[in-house]
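S1.2 Input.
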Amino acid sequence: MINLGDNLLQKIVIDAQVLFNLIKTTVPVPLENLRKQILNKEIITIIPAIALAEFLWKMRRHNKIDEFIQLLESLKRADNVIIDEFDLEILELMIQNKESHELHDEIIAMTCKKHETKIIYTTDKKFEEIFGLELRSWK
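S1.3 Output.
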């Protein structure tokens, strides 16, 4: 938990698919609730840089670079959002890890470990099966 003002807030990690769905006008109820929690600063949201890179790749494919830039700028200004880079600490956690699925998924999972949270918003069941994380899915 992180202290933001006088409150201890729960930390969660989100993947690129969550970002892609959060920018839609109509989103499933669990993601709408997540969006509200982020905007109301009720949680600390950790976004691995690799997830942002994957999101950029998706937005480029949909010809929505301007929307990506706008979201990135607002994320950078939010004091309850951490954009976490791939660093030596994550690499060292990867060395200790016994099993993996895909490189970017392992980096995201080790980001959870780095920030001492097991909660990840994703639809990819591998995060639960391989890394023992708690999935928050909307499907």
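S1.4 Remarks. The chain has a mean pLDDT of 92.
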